[in-house]
Amino acid sequence: MPAQEQIRTAVAGVSGYAGAELARLLLHHPRLARTTPFFLGRPDAPATTLTTLQPQLKGPIADSSADSFAVEPFSWQRIEERRIDLLFLATPHEQSREWVPEALGRGLRVIDLSGAWRLEQPANRAIYQFVDADESKAVEVQQKTVYGMPELHRAEIAKAQSVANPGCYATSIILALKPLIDADLVDVDRGIICDSKSGVSGAGKAPVAKTHFMYAADNLSAYGLFGHRHLGELLEQLKVSDAQIVFTPHLLPIPRGILSTIYVHFREVQTPPSIAKLFQDFYAASPMVRLYPTPELPQIQYSVRTNYCDIGFHLAPDGKRCILVSCLDNLLKGAAGQAVQNMNVMYGWKEEEGLL
Amino acid sequence: MPAQEQIRTAVAGVSGYAGAELARLLLHHPRLARTTPFFLGRPDAPATTLTTLQPQLKGPIADSSADSFAVEPFSWQRIEERRIDLLFLATPHEQSREWVPEALGRGLRVIDLSGAWRLEQPANRAIYQFVDADESKAVEVQQKTVYGMPELHRAEIAKAQSVANPGCYATSIILALKPLIDADLVDVDRGIICDSKSGVSGAGKAPVAKTHFMYAADNLSAYGLFGHRHLGELLEQLKVSDAQIVFTPHLLPIPRGILSTIYVHFREVQTPPSIAKLFQDFYAASPMVRLYPTPELPQIQYSVRTNYCDIGFHLAPDGKRCILVSCLDNLLKGAAGQAVQNMNVMYGWKEEEGLL
Amino acid sequence: MPAQEQIRTAVAGVSGYAGAELARLLLHHPRLARTTPFFLGRPDAPATTLTTLQPQLKGPIADSSADSFAVEPFSWQRIEERRIDLLFLATPHEQSREWVPEALGRGLRVIDLSGAWRLEQPANRAIYQFVDADESKAVEVQQKTVYGMPELHRAEIAKAQSVANPGCYATSIILALKPLIDADLVDVDRGIICDSKSGVSGAGKAPVAKTHFMYAADNLSAYGLFGHRHLGELLEQLKVSDAQIVFTPHLLPIPRGILSTIYVHFREVQTPPSIAKLFQDFYAASPMVRLYPTPELPQIQYSVRTNYCDIGFHLAPDGKRCILVSCLDNLLKGAAGQAVQNMNVMYGWKEEEGLL
Amino acid sequence: MPAQEQIRTAVAGVSGYAGAELARLLLHHPRLARTTPFFLGRPDAPATTLTTLQPQLKGPIADSSADSFAVEPFSWQRIEERRIDLLFLATPHEQSREWVPEALGRGLRVIDLSGAWRLEQPANRAIYQFVDADESKAVEVQQKTVYGMPELHRAEIAKAQSVANPGCYATSIILALKPLIDADLVDVDRGIICDSKSGVSGAGKAPVAKTHFMYAADNLSAYGLFGHRHLGELLEQLKVSDAQIVFTPHLLPIPRGILSTIYVHFREVQTPPSIAKLFQDFYAASPMVRLYPTPELPQIQYSVRTNYCDIGFHLAPDGKRCILVSCLDNLLKGAAGQAVQNMNVMYGWKEEEGLL
User: Fold this and answer.
1) Which of C214, C252, C301 to mutate to test the interface with D (most CBs of D within 10 A)?
2) Residue D107's closest CA among D161, D148, D43?
3) Spatial separation of the C-alpha atoms in residues B26 and B30, rounded to whole Å
4) Domains of chain C with bracketed CATH
């Protein structure tokens, strides 16, 4: 598909963290004139402005127009009037489950940041408890939706009408494991352990007990043991069974960033150069993955506020056990940044455009 | 009043931060060893246990009885059945405004941690917008209620049936200024500036936008400019006018602790020893105030998890301008600790008992 | 001076926080696209690379050249060989005191981020205890050095060969007070109180007791009372006397950001619109100042990672007392960002270029 | 051994975090009421006081004697003069390696908080690179030294002259795994993964790059992969081989607390009650372990500032994979608190005395 010069985008759900980050990225994206309309996720919310939601986006005293980014209540009619080409949904799962089919029906391309359409297998998405008004339609939409991880599905994304943006935890784990599993290096029957830690923005903007400063600060807690909803993405993308992988998320007392520590057994003895080469080859065409040379390791502070997924690894002296450390910013590569990356792929632009 | 050997206490409002801290202090108070305090939640809340609310109070595996601190729904009948002597109210202002008269009518002594009864002047408490069912009764209760700062009102507290526990910000400021103002050293007409900073526990346990980790962390914000409700306590206890004092609170990204930086002009030139002497004399009988020798200054970390109010000061080279720095733990000396201190005074015990 | 198309820049001191931030800004500056800045460390430090010092600047797997930003030991010879036009010094005060004269003698333009050349009056810089090898030369250099706050000295900066980049605290205070003092609204004899709070990056990269996580975290401390070295900048730029202004810095448990709470008395009654108008007029041509409409106030989180200085204010009901709240990022508008802003002014480029 | 009424204690190394915490605990220990512990710093350090090192221990204005806790330079002569019974060493590993033999030779009982004497196998302590002046003496001291984990070695500790206080990470892992491994439930050949996270106090008081606030805050980093020195304690206490266990520590942006997430495979299908029963039986006589009933899990905030090791677990639906979560305060149960617990056992006092 040849690069398209100019498109019209809209973002629904700019009041959440991912939507806000996405709005900021689109405003600075070189391919998009500063005309992106913004919408609240809810049809019934009062109109507001982006700078009310995010005062840090305000302009200087002399440039009051900078304050004029209107945020309208969500409305299909207004989306049509604005002749939108690409709709980003940074809305709750249930909302996206309903709106993606509607958007496709209206001829829009869609990038959905929620978990609504990431999972092909009904069993894997049972945890979301979706109730589809039109089940056959849902099956059809699911089939045409591409899992939006450009490093794995670049070609399909380019042609896709519907893209399901991956989960933040899932991105950090899949990108670290995929090259090893695809090369059949990992003895998956010995079990893969994914111990992940995420900053509080991953828990959403709603003030609840768990996001209270007094709960999160000076603390660390594990949650969702043997039952986090990102597990399904690992199963489908890595093609492993539930018995072969364990994923445990933890809540870190920091605003943003994910670090996943991943433990695998190799079938055969490996060396640092052999593993490094595998990653270099796998991601040779991927501008948003960075490999750390052993013995260096990524840290959350190096990946936060970038769109990179940083990967490092250590081999045990026996050459058969390996620890992978993977870091990313849960709001960028784990959400809004990856969504922009998907847009770039969908329209034939440079994959990292607007993301450096 | 001779020391009373044994009393029965109850705490209403143990689900909040101050109530929880108070429960912890009372459980370890040497005078209350044989009478576990009676814990009460909201009248309409289901019964629970203290260790459910505060898992850190759990006992070891072998001692499951340690888990048995029941928290019952609030009920006057149960308070009578338990023959409570002293009722602590760690309840919202409106609730305390209603319950303190009721408690006094039932012959209980009361220490109220809310702002309901701290202010004598109607103008100063207008900000709370109390609606009293029985206004003349309210006037009567107000008149017999003592402002519970032992360093200033020790004798009245000892005899009081009703004690209004001071505000956290107010405690840090009043204790630093009172010796200087009483000695008429301060030129109050030149204005007193109180710039205070508090940890997030001061904002309460309810999850709201302001207590969200993402709002509070990595941030600092001023609020309540020229209108915080603790101002009235400063006016009444320091006997200054609204035009003579400014108080500005800020929200710090830490769990607990207050630091107030206070700026005054002296009428005459002073020296560090003259000011130090004044404080030493004023607080000679006060076990919960610590003075820092110039040029040392208190810091939040030194006062947190103690019941002390720490005070330090620096004089300008001209000897007439002075900066006071005052620190305390908003949940201890600023709330639950000061409440225990008041109980100790009310029953003739050592003022610092159970607080070191 | 007409805009110059292309210049060659060098940064000495990229291993510190301000130098690192400056390197990052210059690498992304649109005017410097074809001339990678030349990075310099200490004269006696081994050569290294920018991505070793700052792993977050690494490029993707495919682009190993992105890792090649060399950092050489400082050397005048190498600066000449690279035909540098503009030298940024992010070096310690003593070093800058020595190197700025040398750089000017070699015909370079210089922006010095240290405190070495900010103060005209010997008494105000006594605190730095500079020992100049050539005192008459130092006097001459001082006279030709412009205080690099574009909002106040735009025209002189444009022509200057030597620019002294302001202190971070000083920037937050001067920009908030200057419009009011210049308009003679402030009764300076009643005293101005500047209560400032800064994140830990302001304390430098050297690991010392004060920058240890255990000291700074969960804490707040005041320091430098009546004696911080930024005070001289306030005196000279605001034209007030030491007796008329008090400045107290505090160490906040956050990585970056400054909030200053400033208390003034007006000579006459003012209104929010009259004050707002004053600021709007004063900063009409200044793209890096944002005014918050009363009752909104800036917060550290809104200004961090921007080059703006955010200003808000509240008037007392009497219309004569005013609290100003000023926020900025100490590494951007308080250091590296303002340095780039000065460069833009010096070369006739848009003042905000590379800073949005 | 019958309980001894009164002993004289000394602490060497009160300037570090563990030593400071230990000093605080001993000062409040009911058995040591009349014998203030004797505090010692480095042999070459000037005399100081405990309240200079830890201002939070200061007493009130009225009680200046409270400030008189002298800290003398370390000296064997002074230890003899004070007729010390029990010497705590909170000193660096090398120092303890030298001083424990000396102390034993002088007839003192010793609790050493360092890693100097925890490991029986030379291979396991090779990482410390100890150089013993008298190797046969070192062998002899090692043989008589007991690993000071009362839950495992209560009887030996009671009789021991020399106790090696366990590592903080090791304590959190060993206490969680020991009951399961001893009962032979764990299929150790399938590998045990211990993913641990610790607050910054675990990294020591010396200001280094890693303990700088700017490094630790808003960050998470893994370190010591396949090579942390606590690994040896796991091997020896759990009787597993290096090939059977992986331990990965991470640095958390919090002052104190450790959380270990531990992954095991069971040989046979288990149920939550069967595992709970096992722990209850194993720790029936252990007052400092708390078990969390499934599905509850410990969190760092519940264990910090207590001497408990908190343990919880989740079983996979298959009943064969299990995740254990273990939390403790690295300065208490992970250091000073466990040292006091050992003292209590050594002198026949209640194990939890002075620790609740």
Assistant:
1) C214
2) D161
3) 8
4) 9-166+335-346 (3.40.50.720), 168-330 (3.30.360.10)
Q: Which of C56, C67, C289 to mutate to test the interface with A (most CBs of A within 10 A)?
A: C56
User: In terms of residues, how long is chain C?
Assistant: 356
pLDDT tens for A196-208 read 999 999 999 999 9
Residue in this structure with the two tokens 């980049």, named with its chain if needed: C165
Cβ atoms of B202 and B170 closer than 8 Å: no
- Quote the Cα angle for A48-A52-A53, to 5°: 90
Q: Which long-range contacts (CB under 8 A, 24 or more apart) does A153-157 make?
A: A154/A285, A154/A345, A154/A351, A157/A342, A157/A345, A157/A346
**Chain-chain contact of D279 with B61 (C-beta, under 8 angstroms):** yes
More confident residue, B43 or D351: D351
Question: C207 vs D205: CB contact, 8 Å cut-off?
Answer: no
pLDDT at position D155 is 98
Residue with tokens 């931030």: C21
**pLDDT above 80: residue B24:** yes
Judge contact between C326 and C298, C-beta under 8 A: yes
Is position B168 annotated as part of the catalytic site? yes
Q: What angle do CA A43, A48, A51 make, to 5 degrees?
A: 135
Predicted complex: ipTM over 0.85 = yes
Q: Counting beta carbons within 10 angstroms of the beta carbon of residue A295, is it exposed (0 to 12), middle (13 to 18) or buried (19 or more)?
A: exposed
Q: Note the pLDDT of residue B255.
A: 98
Burial label for D284, CB within 10 Å (0-12, 13-18, 19+), is: exposed
Concatenated DSSP letters of A97-144: HHHHHHHHHTT-EEEE-SSTTS--SHHHHGGG----SSHHHHHHHHHH
Q: How far apart are CA A26 and CA A33, in angstroms?
A: 9
Distance (Å, rounded) from C-alpha C311 to C-alpha C299?
9
| DSSP state letter for A65 | G
Q: Is the pLDDT of residue D173 over 90?
A: yes
Q: Which of B17, B212, B218 sits opposite A207 (nearest CB)?
A: B212
**Mean pLDDT across chain D:** 94
Closest CA relative to residue B41, chosen from B65, B68, B19, B17:
B19
Start-to-end CA span in chain A (Å): 24
Give the β-pairing of D192-198 and D245-251: parallel
Task: Determine the distance from the C-alpha atom of residue C121 to the mean position of all C-alpha atoms in its chain, rounded to a whole number.
Answer: 19
Q: Which of D126, D138, D128 is nearest to D162 (CA)?
A: D138
Q: Report the neighbours of D using a cutoff of 3 or more CB pairs below 8 angstroms.
A: A, B, C
- Among the listed residues B210, B188, B326, B319, the one whose alpha carbon sits nearest the alpha carbon of residue B257: B326
Q: How far, in Å, CA of B12 to CA of B22, rounded?
A: 10
| pLDDT above 80 for B1 | no
- D322, A83, D89: which is closest to D312 by C-alpha? D322
CA-nearest residue of chain C to B190?
C190
Weakest-pLDDT range from A53-67, A266-280, A321-335, C223-237: A53-67
